[in-house]
Amino acid sequence: MSKGEVLILDFCFSPFCMRVKIALGEKGVEYESREEDLFGGKSELLLKSNPIHQKVPVFLHNGKPLCESTTIVTYIDEVWPSPPLLPACAYDRAQARFWADFIDKKVFDAVGNIWRSQGTATESAKNEFIEILKQLEGALGEKHYFGGDSFGFVDILAIPLTSWFYAAEKFGGFKVEDECPKFSAWMKKCMQKETVAKVYPDPEKVYEFVAMMRKMQGIE
User: Fold this and answer.
1) What is the DSSP string of 131-192?
2) Mind listing the pLDDT tens digit for each residue in 117-153?
3) pLDDT in tens, 6-41
4) Which of 25, 67, 84, 94 is 20–30 Å from 43 (CA)?
């Protein structure tokens, strides 16, 4: 299903890049992925395409750049409308956007607070993270996915962030499965989807990357 050339400026451990790749996978859209060296030297294309933040992902559709993963996933859903990622009902769409915003503002930062912390601060960061996941469990309720029976917009935004959970567990000394079993079951269900599994990084490798980041930031 082609509507022109699609290129992603990518980074293998970025959950935000993963969001874009999963959304394209759900739509059956072919794309080229170009890995960026975020530490050794960002490409001219990245600096030109995202001069404000100079971050990945950058999504180029027929040469026109878009930044910020939630904006990109929304764009993908509009340009390639089938199958839809957002619910048909206006109320449900608004609810999906509310939870998407909650996830964007809370989850990744909470993971970062754990691996960047030391001593007693780690326990506090862990408790805050678990509380956020419990709120998401409440939103999930008894549904298979956040949108109901089908994997959709909120799931696509949330599942990539879980690739960093193993690192948070290691540094925080806990297990998501023990604290939030319903959320953990949702994670496993999403992981069975081919569009997720084929772009999901090895959590051990993410953990090693995070350990390197801790060293770079002088946290040990």
Assistant:
1) HHHHHHHHHHTT-SBTTBSS--HHHHHHGGGGGGHHHHHHHHT--HHHH-HHHHHHHHHHHT
2) 999 999 999 999 999 999 999 999 999 999 999 999 9
3) 999 999 999 999 999 999 999 999 999 999 999 889
4) 25
What is the separation of C-alpha 112 from the centre of its chain, rounded to a whole number of angstroms? 13
Phi/psi of residue 59, nearest 5 degrees:
-110, 120
Does residue 1 surpass a pLDDT of 70? Answer: no
Q: Are residues 99 and 39 in the same domain?
A: no
Q: What single-letter DSSP state applies at residue 3?
A: S
Same domain, 134 and 211: yes
Among the candidates 46, 79, 112, a domain finishes at: 79
Alpha helices (H) in 28-68, listed in sequence order? 44-49
Q: Is the same domain home to 187 and 207? A: yes
Residue with tokens 């878009």: 66
- Structural domain span for residue 49: 6-79
Widest CA span in the chain: 52
